[in-house]
# Entry
Amino acid sequence: MRTLSSVEELDFTAAMPATAVFQPASDDALLQGTLAGDEDAFAELMGRYRNQITSYIYRMTNDYDAAVDLAQETFLRVYRAAGRYQTTHAFSTYIYRIATNLAISELRKRKRRRLVSLTGLLSSHDGEEARDFNPADDRPLQDVDLVDAERRSVVKRAIATLPEKYRAPLVLRDVEGKSYDEIAHILSTSEGTVKSRINRARNFLRDKMRNYV
# Structure
């Protein structure tokens, strides 16, 4: 067999087809595909964000079933409003804003339900004056050697007691890893307000966790 010359080798190499590098479609492109009726495009968009949106709402509400339902509602709203999406901000910012609003709305509904329930407990049904509602704390004393699982549970419960205006920026920053700028756009507020609320939330958690550190 004749040995190829360097020129022939060069020509042969140049004639070979270049290896195609697959570039996944951007979020914006998938949303445009959704607008055009491409159901696979929206399915891929859901696949990219389903777990993180569900996880985020769960950390906000501390209720997995509610998180699944609200995540579905988030994607439903994205689908219905696909034509109104503005590309001035990242799609991730857009979908987190919707998820945040739904989570906060759920927390406020719970607060109203608890208030109604508490009012009923405090109200007298036989003409007597309402009594102070101060239930006994039946929780067991904490073990000195607190395991990590219990500590994580304490952190989760402490976060759940934060007002939503402090809870949302804290979770977005310390759990979801969002930048201050992203959080400001998600919550429609200023970076200064975001930083202030995160600082207050962290201080609150430090006080709550003092006995566990």
